[in-house]
């Protein structure tokens, strides 16, 4: 479904992606992991056209995405930090996004699921971090798309909201969707991911199942297996 071919991205003197190759097949949950600053968000933003690589090509369903925009109709994106307009109310933002994106939406079901009814007329600038994240989730999941990209979706969520989010992601997978998720929460990875993609030194350092990673690192505990990969960077 997605191919990154020889992607290079530098910010000034800092090389973030250094000839990265990655193939993501259709259907399933892919966890994009790596230490802080390893380039996970940069990789996602390259796919979204929000960051332009210095070199390389990215293909979505066989077609190059560079400097094209139509492919974005068929993906949903949850940003790591949602900069909502503080003076808009929750419902005004939801309606604005619906107007911008002429697709069927199921926001009512999601508003109910995340207990947002009593917040609909509140200004976004006055919401708690976790409540803002629930709004972020509603905006991401209310449209039907084949690809769902979630950059740190669990930030600030209480345990009930986290359970609902995990069920939502699982349901999308069961419907044949492809989900790319970045997270530092290993229990989320362990519960959901079909495959792990681990970024280090600007390249894919590991790609495979959780079991394969545990075997490779000779560690039954995922958190320690990942720590083992990260520690190679400092060795
Ligand atoms: N627009 C930018 N200008 C300059 N440097 C940038 C820019 N965007 C990202 N970087 C740098 O690129 C590196 C990779 O950042 P990125 O956000 O992709 O990492 P990440 O793996 O998502 O990190 P985290 O786990 O902390 O979210 C970091 O050193 C960051 O400071």
UniProtKB/TrEMBL annotation:
Name under which the protein is recorded: ABC transporter ATP-binding protein
Organism this protein belongs to: Gramella jeungdoensis
InterPro entries: AAA+_ATPase, ABC_transporter-like_ATP-bd, ABC_Transporter_VariousFunc, P-loop_NTPase
CDD domains: ABC_DR_subfamily_A (cd03230)
PROSITE patterns: ABC_TRANSPORTER_2
A GO molecular-function annotation: ATP hydrolysis activity
Alphabetically ordered keywords of this record: ATP-binding, Nucleotide-binding, Transport
Pfam families: ABC_tran
Domain of life according to the entry: Bacteria
């Amino acid at each position: 479904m997605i191919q990154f071919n020889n992607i290079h991205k530098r910010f000034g003197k800092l090389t973030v992606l250094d000839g990265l190759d990655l193939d993501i097949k259709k259907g399933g949950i892919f966890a994009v992991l790596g230490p802080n600053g390893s380039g996970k968000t940069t990789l996602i933003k390259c796919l979204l056209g929000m960051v332009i690589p210095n070199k390389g090509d990215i293909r979505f369903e066989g077609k190059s995405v560079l400097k094209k925009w139509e492919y974005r109709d068929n993906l949903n994106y949850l940003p790591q930090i949602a900069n909502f307009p503080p003076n808009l109310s929750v419902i005004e933002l939801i309606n604005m996004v619906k107007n911008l994106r002429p697709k069927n939406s199921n926001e009512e079901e999601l508003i109910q699921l995340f207990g947002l009814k009593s917040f609909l007329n509140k200004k976004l600038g006055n919401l708690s971090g976790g409540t803002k994240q629930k709004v972020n989730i509603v905006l991401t999941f209310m449209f039907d798309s084949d690809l769902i990209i979630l950059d740190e979706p669990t930030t600030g969520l209480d345990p009930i909201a986290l359970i609902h989010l995990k069920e939502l992601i699982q349901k999308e997978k069961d419907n044949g969707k492809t989900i790319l998720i970045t997270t530092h929460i290993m229990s989320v990875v362990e519960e959901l991911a079909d495959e792990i993609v681990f970024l280090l030194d600007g390249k894919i350092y590991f790609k495979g199942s959780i079991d394969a990673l545990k075997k490779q690192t000779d560690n039954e505990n995922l958190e320690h297996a990942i720590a083992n990969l990260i520690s190679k960077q400092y060795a």
